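New to this. Please check both lines:
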Amino acid sequence: MSTTTPSPSERYRASAERTAEAKTHLGAFARTLNFELDDFQRQACKSLQEGRGVLVAAPTGAGKTIVGEFAVYLALQRGLKAFYTTPIKALSNQKFTELTEKYGEENVGLLTGDTSINGDAPVVVMTTEVLRNMLYADSDTLFDLGFVVMDEVHYLADRFRGAVWEEVIIHLPSEVQVASLSATVSNAEEFGAWLDTVRGDTDVIVSEHRPVPLWQHVMVGRDIVDLFAGETTFDEIAPAGNPATAAAVPSAPSADDAGQRGFEVNPELLSLSRAESQLNFQGRFGHGGRSQRRQQRQRYGDRPQQETRTAVRRASRPQVIASLDRQDLLPAITFIFSRAGCDAAVAQCVASGLWLTTEREQRIIAQRVDEAGQDIPSDDLEVLGFWNWRDGLLRGIAAHHAGMLPTFKEVVEKLFADGLVKAVFATETLALGVNMPARSVVLEKLDKFNGEAHVDITAGEYTQLTGRAGRRGIDVEGHAVVLWQPGTDPAAVAGLASRRTYPLNSSFQPTYNMSINLLAQFGRPRAREILESSFAQFQADRSVVGLARQVRSREESLAGYAKSMTCHLGDFTEYARLRRELSDAENFSSRTKSRARKSLNEDSLSRLLPGDVVDVPAGRAPGFAVVLSSDHSSREPRPAVLTLESQLRRIGVDDLEGPIAPLTRIRIPKSFNAKVPKSRRDLASSVRNALRENRPPARGSSRNNDFGLGSASQNQEKKIADLRRALRAHPCHGCSEREDHARWSERWWKLRKETDGLVRQIQGRTNTIAKTFDRVCDVLSTYGYLESTEDGQHSISTDGQRLRRIYGEKDLLISQALRQGAFDDLDAVEVAAFASVLVYQAKREDRGLRPRMPSVSLETAVDIVVREWSALEDVEEQNKLPLTGEPELGLIWPMYKWARGRHLQEVLSGSDLAAGDFVRWVKQVIDLLDQLAKIPGLDPRLARLCAEAIRLIRRGVVAYSTVG
């Protein structure tokens, strides 16, 4: 690559620019750094210095936070305030520590949902939600605010919390400069154009360059093999600077695609993949294949389970780390998309006798770990897994995930940053922005469970995860390693590694709290205008232009199709309509029968009572089972059952082949505890005895029942017969080219439907956010939070003013709980337990039976909130709004015990909560209680109870989690 030598005039101009810059704030800031600013950093800092906002999009580890730090420096130099916002508390804590070290404790504050340190300081680090709440409350802290840094701004695509970023960007005073820091996104120009619209002058600065080259590998057995042939780094394979090109790359390219893109997949890996495919082909269809399938059917029933065979002996986790160590590729982060998997990996490495530290390093680690644990109550150390955690750290090995105590995670982060911990097994949450760069990143798998199903990771997620590899100023190069799994496609891995598409799509939706705050501050007409300035509406408006172009093109095609289906015998359009009506009638008849069957099945499930013994014909656990709990309220009943194998399951309509009825009944003892294995075995034994005494009817005896649908379908059958007669009588029925015309007709009809769908999309995307806002206002009016005035405007009621200070996903439900007196008869301990119902979100698989409440008062409070939620859900459905989440009762007992001063081990026993999760949920309860206590006009008694509840639960490991 040739370089052009600058001319004397160019050298003089560059020298003059450097001299001028040295006299500016940017020059002074640059002198505080121990490295030269990159071009993109210098360009972004200049924009801020000249009074413009910036959007900086750069790869992980490129150093974009320097731009945010310059915004903080500028604010201090100009006597203004700077807010540094982050999406998660861990990142806030880390940034707070960094800025405190640089500018002193007196100049830096921290505000998260449950922590307030020096909130009036000139520089305050906070979560984005805290700033949103300040804006709605018109807080005095906003006075003299000059700069806001929005770190990880691409988080606005998050479907649960992303809207907060847009709220802040829209509502910040116009004089505030915003520095938005983002991962590399493929539509940075579009996002920048929106920022320019709502914030004024905003420069978009995109850097595709990684300061530390990234090499891609695949670990085959214990061997690390290059993914690409030749000397190919990340910068060379990824499409540079053209988002459109990047977006066009297929998600799973072939080896040919790879060649066309200018890089070549390692032939050694392609050969291995072909050999593996051949091995599996022979296993299924070669000698013995039929015998194998027969054996599988005998073992698993009629569902043969194929396992992909491979000639590669997969390395264990300790072997993977040892291989990396031999090749000097540590420290490494191994991403495992499971908390249990991370903990198991550490345990496996420890059990294997793996040591990665020297004696000197072990002494330093022991001192730091013991210092971190000295304030933790000794009774809690065992339940927190402190000693196993310490043992792993001494060896230079640790886990990092949300289930860990925040203190433990911070110790791991600091030891890793100092090079004392060499191998970390982490979940993907680490990739969000916590500063933990490594020499290497290992991906165990390229798929993950997203809460509903196992899905492949996207190219954007791959880039985010592997972006941790390569420590600037320490490593000459970084390494990304994918472990070979049976069925691995090297070309698909190459496709992930060579794309940087991470489109930023808005998740903005008006909430009840947002809407009522907008109405209170601006009135309805102005509130609609503000919402229409959101990034969501900006994207929708831009997409309409492209949709309209598609509609025009399709209308031209429709005219050509209509000409091709013309028939000389009659009106083929009418004949095609009859054919469609007949097809629709036949499909409707089939669907009606199917729906009726499903309805009968659901009804039979909802009628089951605890103690009913049933025969489940299909699903994950077919066979006899006893019902443990009914499910009357759900739209799709899923009663809990215990199988004869003592397994707990939920059964649904997919497990049935017809309505289910009890075969017999047994009594479930009051002492029965589903979590105790012996209790489950005893109950299963009772079921067997009952079945022996009451011989059940033969399986499938009612399978041929017509479900009472015979008479109901007579009218439909008559309509189908009439349409068939009309079709045969039509002149076009006898046309020799009838089927040719019909094919053109089907094309016309299909394209007509698609075109009409595009037209509806155009109509639907026009003012979509404002229309949703109107529906939210209708719900608020229904509940009396908005009141109509004589001039046709809306005013905020007393209850509405209270709702303005309640922030959270269940904002309206919380307000209704207050309104309906759910808190009235509770003491401080019960208030803490009840608040958990309004914030806790159980994992889908953790949702079990409704627990017995600790007190009558809590039982009453829970009944009120469940009743209010059910009514609210009906209103939201009628208004076509997202449904408020169901109140979760899984945290009531742990929170109740904790508020009563019980030890952590006793609190967590009998629950599936990890200590770190418990601490996180307690902090969210504290956040909610703090919000409630500060609501203007709240009953003073309840405000005192909220404050007392906070005092009761902010203790022990909850109080001891450093700054956040």
User: Anything to note?
Assistant: DSSP finds 38 helices and 24 strands in the chain. The longest helix spans residues 572-606.
